[in-house]
């Protein structure tokens, strides 16, 4: 009996060591692979969900834990979360939604597409995959879409995790004077430029300009003032004193947690993926324990 227990302990130790080794390898690969590199493939499956005139692509990493839907920002696809994912709980059932016209989702958004439209897209994906309740998160425009989903279908959400997802366009002006890149290194700026070129290879300048204005036509103030869904808001300080909630247009509510990432700017999930991942894991774990 004692021998069997020792063997079991040894097996458990080896399994844990193997899991840690795989995590280290994944982290190293994520750090070395540029954003404009190949799509996420090993361990992922792509779903194409029909919409009027096209399809939405959702890249899934199956897990036994709660579902977390990640929504990219403007002009980004699922690859933008490459550096963040290794720092998220490996048990999460991850859904990486690609907005219209980006990644493998098509067609491109028409001028009448709104953040409300993209919020409904997220719910269509959840419906298609038979996901009843889930956490929703996103960066920039994706964070705004996440807040919109909280307004449209609060009964479906376990929580919202917004990574620099503006309450409205005025928040970017009042809190940061539209500073999005001041903390990025030259290599990070070059990587972002090449990634954008790759992502928008078949977009015209007119299409880019139209989609870039989408975030200015939405305001999530009323949603944040009234929602009963728990919200985590993560922002970068830009090496300056943190902005106030008033400047960010985020109401003072216990249900909305505001956390700052020192020394980062708008791309917090790329500049400090480990810290952002830990904050997201803590938020999800806390909500699931209630």
UniProtKB/TrEMBL annotation:
Keyword Endoplasmic reticulum: no
Residue ranges of domain AB hydrolase-1 in the record: 66-178
Xref: Pfam families: Abhydrolase_1
Keywords: Dioxygenase, Oxidoreductase
Domain of life per record: Bacteria
Entry keyword Manganese: no
EC number(s) on file: 1.13.11.48
InterPro entries: AB_hydrolase_1, AB_hydrolase_fold, AB_hydrolase_sf
Gene3D superfamilies: alpha/beta hydrolase
GO molecular-function terms, A-Z: 3-hydroxy-2-methylquinolin-4-one 2,4-dioxygenase activity
PANTHER family membership: MONOACYLGLYCEROL LIPASE
Protein's name according to its UniProt entry: 1H-3-hydroxy-4-oxoquinaldine 2,4-dioxygenase
Organism: Polystyrenella longa
Lineage start: Bacteria, Pseudomonadati, Planctomycetota, Planctomycetia, Planctomycetales
Gene: hod
């Amino acid at each position: 009996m004692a021998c069997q227990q020792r063997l079991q302990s040894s097996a458990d130790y080896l399994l844990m060591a193997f899991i840690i080794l795989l995590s280290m390898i994944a982290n190293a690969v994520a750090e070395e692979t540029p954003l404009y590199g190949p799509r996420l493939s090993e361990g992922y499956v792509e779903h194409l969900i029909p919409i009027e005139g096209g399809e939405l692509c959702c890249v899934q990493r199956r897990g036994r834990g709660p579902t977390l839907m990640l929504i990219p920002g403007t002009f980004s696809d699922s690859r933008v979360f490459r550096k963040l994912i290794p720092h998220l709980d490996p048990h999460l059932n991850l859904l990486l939604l690609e907005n219209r016209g980006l990644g493998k989702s098509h067609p491109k958004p028409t001028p009448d597409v709104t953040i409300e439209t993209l919020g409904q897209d997220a719910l269509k994906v959840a419906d298609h995959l038979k996901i009843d309740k889930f956490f929703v998160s996103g960066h920039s425009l994706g964070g705004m879409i996440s807040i919109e989903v909280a307004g449209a279908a609060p009964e479906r959400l376990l929580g919202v995790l917004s990574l620099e997802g503006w309450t409205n366009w005025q928040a970017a002006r009042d809190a940061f004077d539209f500073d999005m890149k001041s903390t990025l290194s030259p290599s990070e700026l070059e990587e972002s430029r090449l990634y954008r070129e790759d992502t928008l290879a078949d977009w015209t300048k007119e299409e880019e300009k139209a989609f870039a204005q989408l975030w200015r036509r939405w305001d999530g103030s009323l949603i944040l003032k009234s929602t009963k869904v728990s919200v985590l808001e993560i922002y970068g300080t830009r090496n300056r004193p943190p902005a106030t909630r008033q400047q960010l247009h985020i109401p003072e509510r216990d249900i909305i947690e505001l956390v700052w990432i020192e020394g980062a700017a708008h791309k917090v999930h790329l500049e400090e993926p480990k810290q952002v991942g830990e904050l997201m894991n803590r938020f999800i774990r806390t909500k699931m324990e209630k």
